[in-house]
Amino acid sequence: MDTFALEILKKHWGYDEFRPTQEPIITSILQGNDTLAMLPTGGGKSICFQVPALMKDGVCLVISPLISLMEDQVKNLTDRGISALALAGNIPFYELERLMCNVQSEAYKFLYMAPERLNNNEVATRLKASSINYIVIDEAHCISHWGKDFRPAYLECKKLREWFPHIPIIALTATATERVQRDILENLQIPKASVIKGSLIRSNLAYMTYKIDNKWNRLERILLKNKGSSIIYVRNRRLSEELAHHLCEEGFSAMSFHGGLSVEEKGKRLAMWRLADIQIMVATNAFGMGIDKADVRTVIHWDLPNSLEDYFQEAGRAGRDGLKAFAIILYNDNDVKKLLVDTERSQVSVSFLKEMFPKLCSYFHLAIGEGEGNSFIFNLADFAQKTQLDALKIYQGLEVLDRNGILSLSQAFFRKATVRILISSREAIDYLQRNIQEKELLFFLMRKYSGIHEQNISFRIENIATNLHITALEVQKKLEKLHNDGVISYKSENTDAEITFIMPRDDDRTINYISPQVKWYNQHKVEQCNDVLRYIEEEKVCNEQFLLNYFGEKLGIPCGICSHCIESKQKNLSKEQIKAISEEILALIAYHPMSSQEICLASSYYEWEILHVLTLLLDQEKITILATNQYVTKY
Questions:
Q1: Are β-strands 132-137 and 254-257 bridged in parallel, bridged antiparallel, or unpaired?
Q2: For the chain, N or C: smaller number of CB within 10 Å?
Q3: What angle, rounded to 10 degrees, do the helices at 439-448 and 472-484 form?
Q4: Which residue segment(s) compose the domain that 264 sits in?
Q5: CATH number, domain with residue 601
Q6: What's the whole-model pTM score?
């Protein structure tokens, strides 16, 4: 390894040597190669580009998906005496101009920005005039087909190869199937990049799947048994708040985390969790990417993930300190049905696009052959009302057209609003007796958004309109009345979209041009759903072996600690082991009844061993179970 690289590592990070998985990546970068590097979560990806960047003159440009991720990286660098800048949040033009001038004069060693910034003329002009030494695409899986739902703007990264044809591009991610790897190389225009993959084996992480009717009881049992920091992933904001509230009522220390919170509130909750002021973070997938907390003991998926890529990324946040940790999926038949329904709803058919696209063109008075290069301000609610098409389906359709280069859709789309209820529930009832026409909306807000009396809640007006079966304009008028009457504090943001047509109108021919990609994408979503179902329903293969095989790595022997391996061990408990466990259980319940959860907490054996032997003791009629679900000795 280059001695200068080791000197920088020692000076700024205090380490004497790189990890074995880091060395080939750093060597490739120092040789000036385009590089796709895959290291599991916690593998030290950032050092792989930060050290080489410090060895060369110029500024290292880092494209990163989340503000919190950028801010974490910049803080870590500045704390080590390294100059770094993150272009995060809304920056006034004059301030952006000043900051980019500083970048051009090399006042910073690292520049972090979201991919959307690449569309800003000021940023693009200054970047092209700057001395860039490396280009880094962090969380590069976002550029792939499966990642486009999360961050379509990542496709703008292909501009960087055009702007800087001779500057090495470094793509980093935790996991990527061979298909995702091909997507990354193709979209970043680095077909000859060195592809370096660290092992995904996590010998300390147990992958568990439990099909169980009562998920609440199992969740509480897991959290009682494992007292360390936990993340519980759920599908939506409402459930994150409800689950966190329920856990607090049961005596746990929990908070919710989702995209509807203000930046300040997110920072506050994240800090409390990092400092272990709270044990459990109940979160949507807005939480976790780049979160630097090594001692997470459990990552629990309350809802089934959309894909194994999502799951492996999120599960990998457990046990980064190398100590025993658990990645757990809790599910039942309803969860399976929900995943199937959600997958179907997420798809946009070619027939719908053929219906929507001509109406969209006619809405802007575009004739056949016209439209290329024309930009328009677009009001979703108005278009939905005039065409009688579903607003959410329109949005999904526009995303498909944007992904496939038919038009360009600005990031701002739905009209967003923030609301806080200013009066008590009793006062609200008194108000509604005089204003009965506002009852449905106000009750909806109070029922759906827990915490709306204590803080501003962010939501999309169109979503409420869909739920209440009225137009978005009607919702807006009702909110304005409630605000004027002092019932709520309401602020609306003007987020109408700007649509730019990239191709001329040609109706069916336009859609036929992209129909193979649309059909492929829909099929790909179905395949991802089926992969998740195959994983949770697999009965013959070790969970870790299944996951590693999915990502192209072989694990020679079963891991021995996943739920599948444990179930296999149950069949092989010796008579002596069963006898010892039985004696302990009988001793525990000899004087007072105990539930299985209480027995597991009091016992020195594993939970799976206890539950297995309880079943045997019931079959042997040595114990019985009461109506209270407590076990007692039969004699």
A1: unpaired
A2: C
A3: 90
A4: 205-341+538-550
A5: 1.10.10.10
A6: 0.68
